[in-house]
Give the backbone structure.
Amino acid sequence: MSRLRRKIVIGTGRALALSRGGRTHPRSGLHRGHAASPRSRGEGEVRVTGPPLLALRGVSKRFGAVQALKDVDLEIHEGEVVALLGDNGAGKSTLVKVISGVTPADKGVIEWQGRAVQIRTPRIARRLGIATVYQNLALCDDLDVAENLFLGRERRCPGVRGRLFRLMDTGGMRREARGQLDALGIRVPDLRTPVATLSAGQRQTVAISRALLGRPKAILLDEPTAALGVPQASHVLDLVDELREQGIGVILISHNLGDVKAVADEAAVLRLGRNNGFFHVPTTSQDRIFSAMVGATTNA
Ligand SMILES: Nc1ncnc2c1ncn2[C@@H]1O[C@H](COP(=O)(O)OP(=O)(O)OP(=O)(O)O)[C@@H](O)[C@H]1O
Ligand SMILES: [Mg+2]
């Protein structure tokens, strides 16, 4: 059995979807369920949205001798969850880093709300409204929940206390953190808890909450359920649903096709750094998507 086969989980999507209330896909009926490129979707399809929130056209990235991405296309709309799938080394994380400005592309065009942009740094990505939750989460174990949420954008007290004495507005940051967590239905009893003591699921939700504090329009989640048990994974997927409801575009990397079936609208498959198919998730079988991931079918 290949490494990928061991890692990919098939068949839990329906169970998860049911346990989570059997969400219906908001775009059901708008697409035909077959592999298609973002530029040439199925005949007869009616798209109800304007220009994509984010579009990648012919993006390539090379690391020395390794061609990590070659002519990759991807589109995501507001309020849409796009799963980014592929074998180990397919280029998923590289694509996330290209979009988030960590490793800018060598070639190709990135469009944001219909306008070509150059995302050369993470700061530019954040300013546009693109937030990223990396797989390692990049949380500081020794700091508490509120401190982690505001890491890198700490707020000083208003007036002279902040300007002159450089005092942090701890109370204000805790209040906003509490409001944010409550709005997302995230239960963390005490914001002064060091994140080292939180469960994997709570850590994941803290990392997502931190990304949301910047009020992004798009969020990239690199394997958010990989280290979680079923209940915590289900909670994170509920959160993804909630982000979609708020009109945020979500790119979700996952090896768990059950999760993808439960929550994604579209799936984009990468194989050896190239596109290998776009699928309308509600009307496409897990087997079909799996075949594209392992290269049994070619949809370039
Ligand atoms: N900084 C780097 N320097 C050199 N090669 C790199 C670098 N980052 C990624 N690569 C290579 O680019 C290719 C794509 O890697 P990437 O991490 O994007 O894959 P992935 O799809 O995220 O895989 P996984 O499922 O294992 O996380 C791999 O061959 C990898 O070795
Ligand atoms: Mg990766």
User: Anything to note?
Assistant: The beta strands are 54-63, 66-76, 81-86, 107-112, 115-117, 130-133, 218-222, 249-253, 266-271, 274-280. Residues 230-245 form the longest helix (16 residues). Confidence is low (pLDDT under 50) at residues 1-47.
